[in-house]
What we know:
- By secondary structure, this protein is an alpha+beta fold.
- The protein has one domain (3-64).
- Helices cover 42% and strands 17% of the residues.
- The chain has helices at residues 3-18, 59-74; strands at residues 35-38, 44-48, 53-56.
- The chain has a three-stranded antiparallel sheet with strand order 1-2-3.
- A hairpin with a 4-residue loop joins strand 2 (44-48) and strand 3.
- Helix 1 (3-18) crosses helix 2 (59-74).
- The longest helix is centred in the first third of the chain and has 16 residues, at 3-18.
Amino acid sequence: MRDEDKWLAMHTYRKLVEQGIAPAIVCPDCEFPMTTQADEADRPILVCSPCRVTFNVSAWVLDFIEANIREAAAQP
């Protein structure tokens, strides 16, 4: 997946979370909702503000996001 496509998926997913349609991605350590930021190469990363840790957006996370986007699109 191209970085541009990752950003589109991340923004689409963020909007679904804000609408209460999809579950937030939470920090595995403190369960605080993660935010999306750009790394030094302008790729999306997930950030936990309280823990001050960052996570790369892995293939598993992208699959999770895409599955939730598809499920939301299938809703009437």
